[in-house]
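Record 1 of the preview.
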Amino acid sequence: MEEMFDPHIPTGEESDIQICVFPHLEEFLAIDLRDAQTQIHLLNAGDIFNEHFFHSVEFEFSEALRRENTAPFAHMFNLPLRMEEVVREIAMTFILDRLGVRMDDEANMPTVVVIVVGGSTLPGHSEQVVSGIRRLVQGGSDDSVAADWEEVIARLVARENEFAQKENLDELADAGLGDLPDYSTLWGSRN
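->
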């Protein structure tokens, strides 16, 4: 499974599947470039993060937690990193299953790139983000496919942008109150 997360795709090659995640939204895009005709899927996180997903994560966490180890403190310190890997691997497995990828066929395992569309820079660059996603969608298809998805892409970016702007305002309000360690004020002192 780790090879799916290898960001080193040979120069000039595209990934087989590109997943655009909007951190504050339930919807996300999966752009499947494996066939001659690009397939775009608008997926819902609720369909991925279902009871079966949570049971799988709980089982893996239980296994990792109880694993025999001669260095128990180091084992406990490393649990958060291991859990991040477990959640990421299981989530990717569930997403690929939803896209019809056979997980038992390692020879034909697609390369996957996950693009997180969000953060504090999004409000100032929304149009560039929409343009970039549009280029991904056009990857292996004609302009009509991209045109069909234009409205969906713009809607997702705009909604994520709203959340990012609200977070920025909330952070600035917290900074004004001296509650946010990443910001300093002229009249504040951290000492």
